[in-house]
């Protein structure tokens, strides 16, 4: 496993390596969800590259950039047994050298939900992902369904900008009690960790109703919201959404595929999760 920190060396390594090349972009603090993406990339490709970069441009001024978990040595130890070929762990200056001034501004699919709660977030994600795709030129890139809106944003940018990358989305990996794996789970106090499965439970309640034949989206939103509100440690509910799974437009009646998603805060930790209906 070669660990590379400069863009010149990474570009050269990717040009010279065997194809197809599968890329798993991450911000580090790797958990079982990331490792599933890496395993799948290993199965599908001759070369596997993982990027570890905490991208400052996708964090708002009041968000958790400063305290985001950093664990490079531990991450490398987790990746070695999975036969990863290349790890790119650049500094901020490598990705955004002085004078950097070009941005990728995603369209409609980035406006709602996370886009509305975290202004500028998807512009930062789209910019860094485009830069990584351009530098590494992967044939496939792997993302987790947990960040459902991010998957749609990346798929759209890969298509719109002719990046020639097949975006592969894998199911959310969960803890035994249903909590979606996330690097941010590490912020939860023991009490909050105990309460956190309410997020998935709320989605399951909506999904269960949908399975029973309920197609009124507002009824599903209400049932999910009631479950979240039943947990006193949920301090804020940013959204409860039942939206078209491709456009993320809120639905009245569910006809095709829908995404039920929620974002809540437990103390200062923000958790997001979603399930696909259909
Ligand atoms: O999902 C993440 O970890 C990040 O948003 C990504 C895709 C690595 C871009 O920084």
Can you walk through the features of this model?
With 278 residues, the protein is of the alpha/beta class. It has two domains: 2-170, Rossmann fold; 183-277, Pantoate--beta-alanine Ligase, Chain: A,domain 2 (2-Layer Sandwich), CATH 3.30.1300. Helix content is 36%, strand content 21%. The chain has helices spanning 7-16, 32-44, 72-79, 92-95, 114-117, 121-136, 148-160, 190-195, 198-211, 217-229, and strands spanning 2-4, 21-26, 47-52, 86-88, 140-144, 166-170, 234-244, 258-266, 269-277. It has a six-stranded parallel sheet with strand order 1-4-3-2-5-6, sandwiched between helices. A three-stranded antiparallel sheet has the order 7-8-9, with helices on one face. Helix 2 (32-44) links the parallel strand 2 (21-26) and strand 3. Helix 6 packs across helix 7 and helix 9 (198-211) runs antiparallel to helix 10. The mean pLDDT is 98. The chain binds pantoate.
């Amino acid at each position: 496993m070669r660990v590379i920190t400069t863009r010149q060396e990474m570009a050269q390594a990717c040009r010279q390596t065997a194809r197809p090349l599968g890329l798993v972009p991450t911000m580090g603090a790797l958990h079982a969800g990331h490792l599933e993406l890496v395993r799948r990339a290993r199965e599908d490709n001759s070369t596997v590259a993982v990027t570890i970069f905490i991208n400052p441009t996708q964090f708002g001024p009041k968000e958790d950039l400063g305290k985001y978990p950093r664990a490079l040595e531990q991450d490398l130890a987790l990746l070695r047994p999975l036969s990863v070929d290349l790890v790119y762990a650049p500094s901020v200056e490598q990705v955004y050298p002085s004078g950097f001034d070009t941005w990728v501004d995603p369209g409609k699919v980035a406006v709602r939900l996370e886009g509305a709660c975290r202004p500028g977030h998807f512009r930062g994600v789209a910019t860094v992902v485009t830069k990584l795709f351009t530098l590494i030129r992967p044939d496939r890139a792997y993302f987790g369904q947990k960040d459902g809106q991010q998957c749609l944003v990346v798929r759209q940018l890969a298509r719109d900008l002719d990046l020639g990358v097949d975006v592969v989305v894998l199911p959310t990996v969960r803890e035994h009690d249903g909590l979606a794996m996330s690097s941010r789970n590490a912020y939860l106090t023991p009490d909050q960790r105990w309460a956190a499965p309410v997020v998935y439970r709320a989605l399951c309640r909506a999904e269960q109703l949908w399975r029973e034949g309920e197609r009124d989206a507002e009824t599903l939103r209400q049932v999910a919201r009631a479950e979240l509100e039943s947990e006193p440690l949920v301090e804020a509910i940013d959204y409860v959404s039942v939206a078209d799974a491709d456009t993320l437009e809120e639905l009245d009646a569910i006809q095709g595929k829908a995404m039920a998603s929620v974002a809540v805060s437990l103390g200062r930790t923000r958790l997001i999760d979603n399930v696909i209906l259909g």
